Amino acid sequence: MHNVIIIGSGCAGLTAAIYAGRANLKPLVIDGHEPGGQLTLTTLVENFPGFPEGILGPDLTDNMRKQAQKFGAEFKSGAVTAVDLSRRPFRITAGKETYEAQTLIVAAGASARLLGLESERKLMGHGVSTCATCDGYFFRGKPIAVVGGGDSAMEEAQFLTRYASRVYLLHRRSEFRASKIMVDRIRANEKIELVTPVHLEEILSPAKGAVEGVRVKNTQTGAVREIAVDGVFVAIGHEPNTAAFRGQLEMDANGYLLARNGSSTSVPGVFVAGDVKDSRYRQAITAAGSGCMAAIDAEKFLEEHSH
Length: 307
Ligand code: NAP
What we know:
Strand content: 25-35%
Number of domains: 2
Bound molecules: NADP nicotinamide-adenine-dinucleotide phosphate
Largest sheet: 7 strands, mixed
Structural class: alpha/beta
């Protein structure tokens, strides 16, 4: 029986583990399918307070993990496949193991949807990014491409014109899913060129270890075009990792968990932190902050329910 189980080992889960560890709760962290979370997909992180020279994303999560271990957090690898939150202690199944916990912190994150190209995988963090706020600054004065036709893609394209010399917005259809006002803004922005309806065939050039361009094919005419860019921002949406909680915790229409009154959920004793409840800010620092909140809330809950 564990005092607290933390699902997820990104910034939110690891910060919750540091706080719960220091509160002597001996938290158990179940790593999840992307140990370290989305920061492991990045290279230099320049906006996490306390690192004026920046820090590599994987190093930042490694440090947090060591810090959590130092205070007694235990880690198990594996992804959670089922949970039973109908009564306490809660039951959490990950692979062949089932664990019991008095409180649960869900910090399972959201995964950026990817195109699935080999070149995308190879160049991730080396010119390919899923976060304009994080990486836009690296592309000052350079041409870049944004992929997607939803509000995220519009927002990222608009934001990136602050830095980039030119922004190519690549979308697979000629109609946009994004709200009209966002599309109108994009159309009015002289720095942005809409390239539709195209299929992104390849990000060039994985062999050189850097982004040099994209090859797109017009899905109506079949015409192939190469565009020279230094960066590609994939903005085709995120999927919150909440399948195991369906029917047990309240979610919004997109599957993000709903937090109320701090980090509480619809089930007393279950708390949420990080991107699994946040489709808006999605930053390492906001995830870390909410991990801290969830640990404090879990500690209070345990105090109040220990008699
Ligand atoms: P989204 O609305 O699901 O849009 C995803 C976009 O990516 C779609 O245009 C889709 O194309 C495209 N796409 C998906 N898979 C693809 C693939 N494999 N290859 C190429 N293109 C692909 O996601 P989102 O833009 O992240 O928005 C999520 C939610 O947050 C929405 O409800 C949105 O309104 C909201 N949001 C709001 C704001 C705001 O109001 N400021 C900002 C950001 C997000 P198709 O259209 O062809 O399917």
